[in-house]
Amino acid sequence: MTKYGVIVGSIRKNSYSKGVADAIVAGLPADAEVTYLDISHLPLYNQDLDANSPVEYTEFRAAVAAQDAILFVTPEHNRSIPAALKNALDIASRPWGESVWSGKPALVASQSISGIAGVLAHHVLRQSLVFLDMPTMQQPELYIGNTDKLADETGKITNEGTQAFLASAGKQFSEFAAKFVK
């Protein structure tokens, strides 16, 4: 049984990113253990706290370390990833030399209510994952645009074609992750 951590870059209630994540998770194997890793409560990363980290840092690092693979879904904020997501990446990659991300297979999906589908955030996140030594699934590329037209008011993806596409990506991710999970 593979343990999948899901990190949703949007901390907004009724987030479209959460809806996209749910649709991808629907394609994972029935025996998958899925944990949504909450990033909304994390204090801003501060290197001065490495020697005596706040409990939120240590609990988040432990939660990431316990996962076999990580699924990231992000919106685009100002042509980049949201601050909460960048903060989570920083917290779990520190103290220097103690990153808990290293070697974990990753999937990146981006979404936006615009037609460009968060493509810039997607690639900013991928750049960070390269540095964090996370093998990242390359295909299919998951740029989901016009999410406000594909989801209901709770953020749940309701478009059947999009649901099927995202579930298929989840299945493909499970096959990709299996190459790395020991």
Question: How would you describe the overall organization of this protein?
Answer:
This protein has 182 residues and is α/β, with parallel strands linked by helices. It has one domain (3-178): 3-Layer(aba) Sandwich (Rossmann fold). 37% of the residues lie in helices and 14% in strands. It contains 6 helices and 5 strands. The chain has helices spanning 16-25, 55-65, 83-92, 119-131, 147-150, 160-178; strands spanning 3-8, 33-36, 69-74, 106-111, 142-144. A 5-stranded parallel β-sheet has the order 2-1-3-4-5, sandwiched between helices. Helix 1 (16-25) packs across helix 6. The longest helix has 19 residues, at 160-178. The radius of gyration is 15 Å and the shape is globular. The mean pLDDT is 97. InterPro entries: Flavoprotein-like_sf, FMN_Rdtase-like_dom, NAD(P)H-dep_reductase. Residues 3-146 form the NADPH-dependent FMN reductase-like domain. GO terms for molecular function: FMN binding; oxidoreductase activity. This is Oxidoreductase. One of its GO terms (cellular component) is cytosol.
